[in-house]
Specification:
4 helices; single chain; 22% helix; Nucleoside Triphosphate Pyrophosphohydrolase; 7 strands; two-stranded antiparallel ribbon; alpha+beta
Amino acid sequence: MDKKYSSLPLRSGVGIVVLNKENKVFVAKRIDNPKDFWQMPQGGVNSGEDFLKAAYRELEEETSIKSVKLIKELDGMITYELPKRLLGIIWKGKYRGQKQKWFLMRFTGEDKEININTHHPEFLDWKWIELDQLTKVVVEFKLHVYKEVQEKVQKLI
């Protein structure tokens, strides 16, 4: 990593695995990366906010989803570093990556509740996929995160 960025802190974040009734996983395609990469809802934790509150807030902000039931807070934290080309660009250059707490939730609503055309949209499209497809659709620098999340979720469903 570039010395200029190695002293930057990791951003505190959350990620949410949303399962539907068939145990398929919600993924969405980012507006700022319209290639064929998909991700689960995730985002930063605000000052004074606990991880679970941040997870519910991020989920609603990004997808409009409110109808969920917490299944489990996944053990541990998962860290990723931004690739060189994104350092200094993403998050206004304040962070070199994220340290995330992940949550597994069950979507209890109807698909029509899902609306990615939010106040500050982050996604172009969304879909439900099989859990074993997760690592095939994610951007490369988050691959190890999704592998670890996939393994943890597999043991729970």
